[in-house]
Each structure stands twice: as structure tokens, then as C-alpha cells.
Amino acid sequence: MLQEASLEPAYWAEAVNRARTIIEKARSMLQEASLEPAYWAEAVNTAVYLKNRAPTKALSGMLPEEYWTGNKINLQHLKVFGSRAFAHIPKEKRTKWDAKSKEMIMVGYCENSKAYRLINPDDPRKVEKGRNVFFIEDNKPHNSDTGSSNFEEKQSCELVIEFPLKQDEIESYRISVKAR
Question: ∠ at Cα 127 (144, 39), nearest 5°?
Fold first, then answer.
């Protein structure tokens, strides 16, 4: 009796290695974005989405998505996982004085449309879809304080004086300024 290929240990080893790679990417994405492990499914889906759009040696540098569909893939829409996103609120869903956008967190891409998967910080259990989105991809965690940091960085710079002074008056003209 012949053993099926799917039951051979080599087959399973390859599958386990690929799964481990995706899980490691997803874990790194969650940690870099300072997101809770509860969003592991979004991170895994995004890791797979990105893997299918990355060049591979097996296809001579071609993208798997291009190979499967035969179409040239545009990667301009790719954004940093966990980045701050401002989703447009349609006129019908806001009043004259309401904000025109809502701050969200980007956690993925919609497979069947040109939309992003977004988490609303006010209702983090719900993942919403949005097409008209502006991103801030500065690699800062979504929940970091946008003001000054916990410690003050100081830089020293020399004060340039444009009028002559005696040597004893020029001791140490230095000022400290906060780094921006």
C-alpha cells in the first residue's frame, strides 16, 4: 500500500516551518505596533497578505500574487501595520460641526476590495473597513503620547555672537534647547 504524500513527515515539516514563519512575523508586527495579542488574527492575515505580495526565489523574483493571477500587482497601497489612520466620515453620518475623520488603527487589508481593516480605539472589539483613509506612518505606537517624551532630550549648541567681546567675556556661551 502506498502512503499518501500528505501523510509523510517531510510534508508536515514544510507546513510547520511556513506556519512558524507567519506566526513570527505576526508576533513581531503586534509588538512593533504595541497592539494586544487579542489582534493575532488580524496580524496573521496581514502577514499572509504581505507574504503573497513579496518577491520569492522560487518564482525567479516574481510575486506569488502576480504568478497566480497573471496581473501586475500595485503595491502603492501598502501601509505600516498598526499605524495611525484617519478614516473619512461621510456627510450622511455627521453633522455640520462634527469632525470629518475618525482616528483609527490600521490592522490589515480587505481581500475583495480596495479598503483597509481598521480598529476604532473607542470600540476596540470592532474591526471596521475604510477606503478613504489618511495614514501617519511614523513608526510610533498608536497609543504613544504625541507630545513630549517621558524624558527631555537636550542638545547643546553654541551661541553665535555678532559683536566683538573681550576674551574674558566669552567664557562659555552655551544654551540648551529641547529637541523637537
Answer: 60
pLDDT confidence of residue 52? 87
Which one-letter DSSP state was computed for residue 158?
E
Rg (the chain; Cα; Å): 25
- Cα–Cα distance, 180 to 154 (Å, whole number): 10
Dump pLDDT digits (tens) for 106-158.
Answer: 999 998 889 999 999 999 889 999 999 999 988 665 555 433 333 333 344 44
Location of C-alpha cell 566669552 = 170
For 155, other C-beta atoms within 10 Å of its C-beta total: 10
Angle between helices 9-33 and 40-51 (to 10 degrees): 110
Per the CB < 8 A criterion, the answer to whether 79 and 137 are in contact is: yes
**What's the predicted TM-score (pTM) here?**
0.69
> Which of the listed ranges 6-10, 17-21, 83-87 does the model predict with the highest average pLDDT?
83-87
Three-point CA angle 141, 39, 94, nearest 5°: 75
161: phi then psi, degrees, rounded to nearest 5: -110, 130
Looking from the CA of 16 toward its CB, the CA atoms found within 13 Å total 7
Q: Give the integer Cα–Cα distance in Å for 55 and 98.
A: 44
